[in-house]
Protein 1
Amino acid sequence: MKYYQMNGCGNAFAILDGRGEKLRLSAEAVRRIAKSANADQVVSLENSMRGDIFMRIWNNTGSEVAACGNVSRCVGWIMMRERNRDTIKIETEAGLLIATRHGNGDTMISVDMGSPLLKWEEIPLAERMDTRGIDVKIGPIDAPYLQLPGAVNMGNPHCVFFVDELDAVDVVGIGPLIEGHMMFPEKANVGFAQVLGRDCIRLRVWERDAGLTKACGTGACAAVVAGVRKGLLNRSCTVFVDGGDLHIDWREKDDHVIMTGPIELERQAEISAPASAPVFR
Ligand SMILES: N[C@H](CCC[C@H](N)C(=O)O)C(=O)O
């Protein structure tokens, strides 16, 4: 089967084209693939009745997840090249996504991530709360910048803090405390955003079940939505992440969030179907 090693702004992926195979990856196989590929997420491509492709996504710790913005852009690019089309419909557990490019050979790919879910029970949170600024305490650490983060679901749960100085934030120390906080029954991706202007932010994300990554697509979408709801940002924003930059547009006309950014194909290979736990050299 075809194997693609790709990244979106440094968010690293191992993508297996399982169409035509009975590919069923165990959590252990996912962890082994992710380790050997040094990937944040692992994806298997499957046939779809509703779209051009079905994308099954796992974090590198083995948990299956419904949404991943950056890999949606990579899979969109694979299918556009295969079908020689500028628009591709991707089916995921979170729903249908539309990926587009501006022309053949283009590696700037946009994905329509649909509408953000903003009700407390849709994030989900453990109790009723105003999701524009939630009350999540982490023990003795009551740093001033850890007040009232925004909560947004982009097909997956996000908690976004707005901080004055991102380089002063201990993302690796604080991220896991919020990720597993009892306020989030399904855990959460934890974003730390610094506003540089009403149309640009810098963002780092401690990802649920994957840790600190160089970029998080749904995290960038969630940060802009949370910033607009706090009155800090315009609906069209550039998000500077460690691995590059993404452009987010939370469209007024249909409430959809459009994410645009680069993809990179690092390696493509033919491999034998990984029944259990293959190791890629
Ligand atoms: N860790 C995330 C999934 C990957 C999201 C990220 N890589 C993106 O580009 O959106 C979660 O468990 O919800």
Note: Residues 276-281 have pLDDT under 50 and may be disordered.
Protein 2
Amino acid sequence: MAVLSKPVSEPKPGSSPIPVIDISDPESKHALVKACEDFGFFKVINHGVPSELVSVLEYEAVEFFSLPKSEKTQVAGYPFGYGNSKIGRNGDVGWVEYLLMNATLDSASNSLIPSLLKNPQTFRNALEEYTISVRKMTCEVLEMITDGLGIKPRNTLSKLVSDQNTDSIFRLNHYPPCPLINKKTNGGKNVIGFGEHTDPQIISVLRSNNTCGLQINLTDGCWISVPADHSSFFFNVGDSLQVLTNGRFKSVKHRVLANSRKSRVSMIYFAGPSLTQRIAPLTCLLDNEEESLYQEFTWSEYKNSAYNSRLSDNRLQHFERKTI
Ligand SMILES: C=C1C[C@]23C[C@@]1(O)CC[C@H]2[C@@]12CC[C@H](O)[C@@](C)(C(=O)O1)[C@H]2[C@@H]3C(=O)O
Ligand SMILES: O=C(O)CCC(=O)C(=O)O
Ligand SMILES: [Fe+2]
């Protein structure tokens, strides 16, 4: 089932306003902070994640999604496993199929998934090496952000996503070409692949093949298309990082539109803290009289609340402090 929306124009090549951050340059820390404040979204280049790791995992993902539906549904499940059209369990749908996995190292919960593939061990190894490398890059980015904010120690944010028992998720999304997008039959309207939402975690790290479709929403309500770039990573600020910075960074609303001709394959690492982690603004970021905009919560409390909400809900609203 698909949801239709008004057509949106594609950006001209080279004209995208999305910040591009070279993380091999320590001076990029200021641009990183600005990107988190202005967009809650940025593209990372010179990231050090080997392209072979990415290619192997993408190859394995394509193999998986090419299996007959009857086989893929053998590993359907909630929250982890294969899913088709239904997103979450509260009635959201999209033109997408996906595989959700626990990205915590040595997690036993993923063992079933690759068993369907010809070479299950290749998939497991690719996933493990990819998550190790992406987690390392994520920590580097969080440490540059911490530095840019003038916070000490440097691992204040990165330690939240690198402890042994962090709650991180890995997601593979496949958006098949969509025959419903047809000028004659639907007037060329868009079909929603993944409906608008913010990510609940601290930060999300996305990479896709060369098919575009991802859009971010600016605070003025405009959608801007993110030009595809298969060799870069796209980061988005999650709800938890918005709270940790007392609203200085914005968790970015985003969505994916289906393509009429090409498949999009994306892989996203959602860096979350441990379930017992307390989420509240970092005191060093609060000015003299400044108060927290949010009631304190643990990641487990927030996650439960988020997973009971619809995709487009403003999940942080329930945790905002009422001002008199
Ligand atoms: C409708 C939903 C899907 C989601 C859980 C939720 O109830 C609200 C948040 C959704 C989201 C968005 C980011 C990630 O893709 C995700 C895995 C997550 O942590 O929160 C999904 C959840 C999901 O697909 O189950
Ligand atoms: O598939 C994409 O490009 C983005 C999907 C997304 O935002 C998500 O899975 O949370
Ligand atoms: Fe998302």
Note: The pocket of fe (ii) ion (ligand 3) is lined by residues 197, 199, 204, 254 (CB under 6 Å).
